[in-house]
Amino acid sequence: MAVAGDSICVSRQFLAKNQSAMLLNHFFGVSVRLPRSPPHLAKFKLTRSVGIRPTMRVGVEEERRVFHSSRLLEGTLGFDVVSEAELKEKGFLGMRKTKLVCTIGPACCSFQELERLAMRGMNVARLNMCHNTREWHWNVIRNIKRLNEEKGFCISVMIDIEGSQMHMVDHGVASSIKAEDGSIWLFTTQKFKGSRPFTVQANYEGFSEGINVGDELVVDGGMTSFEVIEKVDNDLRCRCTDPGLLLPRAKLSFWRNGKLVKKNFGIPTLSTKDWDDIDFGISEGVDFIAMSFVKDANVIMNLKNHLATKSSDFIKVLAKIESLESLENLEDIIQASDGIMVARGDLGVEIPLEQIPSVQEKITQVCRQLNKPVIVASQLLESMVEYPTPTRAEVADVSEAVRQYVDALMLSGESAVGSYGEKALSVLQMASSRMELRSLEENRHSLISEYPLGVSLPDRVAEQICNRAVEMANNLAVDAIFVYTKHGNMASLLSRNRPNPPIFAFTNENCTRKALNLWWGVFPLGVELSVDMEDNIGKTFNLMKTRGMVEEGDVVLIVSDVVPTCSTHSVFQSIQVRSIN
Ligand SMILES: Nc1ncnc2c1ncn2[C@@H]1O[C@H](COP(=O)(O)OP(=O)(O)O)[C@@H](O)[C@H]1O
Ligand SMILES: C=C(OP(=O)(O)O)C(=O)O
């Protein structure tokens, strides 16, 4: 490992065409200065400083494409105002790395309400297409775009597609209906408007097929339970055995002898409405589409093909893991998707609740292995839908997810309909910052090393470079990692190693910037990049310095491609350590 004043540069040259890799060259000579990090982390002490001295000039043979984004002006740095303020206030190591997703609903859909969520750190806004009208969603997306354009936020938009689920049709009553112990209810597929006493409409024609008298009908994973006492044609007459609330569109499941009766087989994963919602998302240029009740990898691939035919393959597809079938096909689904949501609400309808913590941990671990971001969702701070403080157990649950290094945490009803959405977001922010700091202080990478990454991804060279880069960054206690990226791949591979310093990902692709919002510890910055990497590095150093985000003496580790030279036609991926001067 390098010592003070040494040349610190690992570079790999590989032929861009066939991707076969061979270690060929070491080139830049670089020296670094003492980092600004806290003393206990500054293991890396240096005594002298030398300027950047390339031993080989990187030339460009031909005019190559300079990637443009309409919003990126020459000399500007698109950085989320909230992350910028956090960096200035708390320093590199104080930046929150766990990302926050908020479900947008009636309680937080105005421009001002969304702005308040953005100020408190919302990275991604989730729109659940199950609820409300398309026009309502359109207005929310407009507000978010305005916030990004006018106020300097970088909020990504996710639409969540309903998928195949068996649920109650909206019963026409504003909130919930109480089912009393012993009351008799009719569950029907007959269509009618408004509400009828003791009658519940089910959305799926075949909902009573294969159901026997004596089976248990569970609403919303246990909110209320019934026993089937009679079959009347396709309808079911049921007695309430466990009283509770029936919420609009509550989910229905059947149980026999303590086991789930699988009923989703007959329903196509995507309905006509879902396809319309997907096309709406495409036309609105959303950043993520989350698919509910994914059964296997095929449905993900179909959607990706659809996006590709509409030239919208920049939209990332997230698979929600919320059924037994999705658990059975977990690895294939994760492999096929661009990210995962552990949808604990519906998962808890299909598997015993006590299995949820271990399933969450397993999914998180597989996602990390396969380099896909993972969101933990549902009931994180459920009590805050009604109350201004969370329970201790809720805070412990959130902290445990952060300790597992999940990429993102999601609010559902807490932000969508709750009275304390902003407060709930602050709780997530504080709990995650606290646990991240604790992990950092104790250098608790034991969890990470429990599940060694190995060499598992198709691009083994990039994987190894990023693994080693993070090892170097941690050992040298650099202040930050800079990565220059078009599609975000290298940034994601760095994030996968959960480094101590933040990862600043410079990109000229707006869609990459928005996609990286979901990755742990990655802070995407929009900047006009050229083919000259030296120029890019110099430019971003200057921009960051001018904005007061870095200062003289800060040490950064840079991971970048070095573009083809006149003689080689090949691309170098390099790791460099430089000081700001
Ligand atoms: N766009 C919306 N319009 C109205 N209510 C919404 C909207 N989005 C979410 N909600 C409300 O917030 C609750 C939580 O939302 P969500 O996380 O999407 O969960 P779910 O649909 O599984 O209940 C919903 O039950 C619903 O009452
Ligand atoms: C996030 C979830 O999905 P939905 O809100 O669509 O029920 C869940 O079930 O946990």
TrEMBL record:
Name used for this protein in its record: Pyruvate kinase
Domain of life assignment: Eukaryota
Keyword Metal-binding: yes
Reaction(s) catalysed (UniProt annotation): pyruvate + ATP = phosphoenolpyruvate + ADP + H(+)
EC number: 2.7.1.40
Keywords: ATP-binding, Glycolysis, Kinase, Magnesium, Metal-binding, Nucleotide-binding, Pyruvate, Transferase
Start and end residues of each Pyruvate kinase C-terminal domain: 463-562
Transmembrane segments: none
Family: Belongs to the pyruvate kinase family.
Class of enzymatic activity (EC top level): transferase
Native organism taxonomy: Eukaryota, Viridiplantae, Streptophyta, Embryophyta, Tracheophyta
